[in-house]
## 1
Amino acid sequence: MISSLHSVRLNQDLCIGCTNCIKSCPTEAIRVRNKKANIIEGKCIDCGECIRKCPEHAKKSVTSSLLEIDKYKYKIALPAPSLYSQFGKNADIGKILMSLKNCGFDHVFEVSKAADIVSDFTRDYIETSEITPVISSSCPVVVRLIQIKFPNLIPNLLPFNPPVEVAAKAARNNAMRDHGLKAEDIGIFFISPCPAKVTTLKNPIGIEKSNIDGMISFTEIFPHIIKNMSEEKLPFYFSGKGIGWAKSGGETSSLRINDYICVDGIENVINILHDIEEERLSAIQFAELLSCKNGCVGGVLTIENPFIARSIIRQFTENYKDSEQSNSCGLMPEDTAFTKPIKKKCVNLFGKDIKVALEKMNEVKEIKKKLPSLDCGACGSPSCQVMAEDIVLGETTLNDCMVLFKEQFEKNDKE
């Protein structure tokens, strides 16, 4: 059973054991046993691909309820820039923000402000970095993927917190200064398009404790914003570059550099990470890697079609492309930097005893030779290699291989 540290959860009552999820999981974190899926906690990166692929809606993302904001004396909403893309091509950002505030918040602090701050510091960091390419740390799925499958690339990660954490820190500091509030009186809620960002609340990356108190999904907040929509507007942070972070390529375009790549979609990201690991992209300065196709506008918790949403964000970036904004938050690079090292996440498949592990790995090789190498997933494991490992771990047997079962059945039938 997956723990409360993860956002992605499985409802076994709805699961029919169809194996769609195991084929889409980038870290092979799902198995189907006894006609039910199981998520291996240590391998899950909360990308939400299983949520997308499950025809029975047995996977979901656990997020905060809007009612939770009432626990705090002063409530601050942090809207992701991708939120602006969810209300059609004629959306008015000022109206969206006012409606969001009318949902019960005392203040709205736009994450796009922090995006510009991180862009400024990133540009300076890249100019002096001896490691190439520097890999963006804005997508928590990619960071966790690197921790599990590409630990050699951890030094390549940009050592800055993503804009949402920077925004939360600035928003809390401002509220304490301007209203004389105690830190614990302030509730900061990120309006999130993504399960992995929800996970960073309880399981943060690069810091001991998140600055965020809750994560409310687009799907949760959307009807409330629609209900409260009026002609009233809030002034908004009209930076095309900051808003552009919502779509793939937005972060890199804000850096004003030439030697970069931007890759979206988890499968494409994995291929690029292999290339970086094999030093094929050392001439590239920066790599913007995003788990979701089209970027955050394609997050699992969004409403709008991601291609339409991307087009809307593109229009906003065009409308405000000449709007230069300053770092009004007074933050320095050290205020945004990681304070805790990013470490490799070891999945010790066969334990820490090297001798025992080697023996079991040899067993895996022998069992793998007996399997058809079709990687069909019908056995409940994502590949024949993983099935061989699962057999050694005692989680399944050769009898669960449908191909071998069929061959044996046909052989017995002939006899």
Note: The two ends are 44 Å apart (CA to CA).
## 2
Amino acid sequence: MNAPLDYAQDGAIVTLTLNAPEMRNAISGDDMIDALEAACDRLNADMSARVAILTGAGSAFSSGGNVKKMHDGGGLGGGLPAQTRRNYKLGIQRIPLAFDRLEVPIIAAVNGPAIGAGCDLACMCDMRIAGESARFAESFVKLGIIPGDGGAWLLPRVVGYSKACEMAFTGDMLGAAEALACGLVSKVVPDAELMAETRKLAERIAANPPHAVRMTKRLIREGRHVQLGSLLELSAAMQSLAHATADHKEAVAAFLEKRKPQFGGT
């Protein structure tokens, strides 16, 4: 049996591949949840990992929940209502919390349909590039449920309040071009070029000092929900750390000497 998530590192870039194509890379099972959480923890601990790419095996990015299990009376909604609450808290809700803790920038390479929790998973990433066959739907309402994985928090921060409401209230599918128009993705490329184009962006990020990149990501994340004064205080503290790094000294020296810097992550 294949591992639910493939973790592959090439230099400073880690590629995470949802590896359950027979289930269209559903993410609601415990094995996938455990794997995604473990991958985020591993990325945080490894300073040689400077950027990550998330994609799906097969023709789908992720179908989100397992609808067949819902039909059979199992899955996250099985049992008494109080148990369903625990199923969500101890199950799929661990994924957005793990991604929120993630220090390494992560790019979603959306290679096909990203439906329901799959759409929200893409929104958990910092950036999204779509292949032309990518499709997106915040489709929970079509199944008579709500986004229990944090989608109501994630989606408006990516596409804005009005578009998020339209997507969530209708459950309608967006093609890649419409996703680009509303800012859900930053770029659409031919399917055959998706991973190469995503890797180009990853390489541009990986070329920068890793401590500065990780702290910049944390500041941007915190800036979504803290007051300006709090963010400025956090920025000052992190800046004092950045000024003390060898990479900062190397960046300044390289700039003055008009040469390419060599960053060692120290």
Note: The chain has a mean pLDDT of 95.
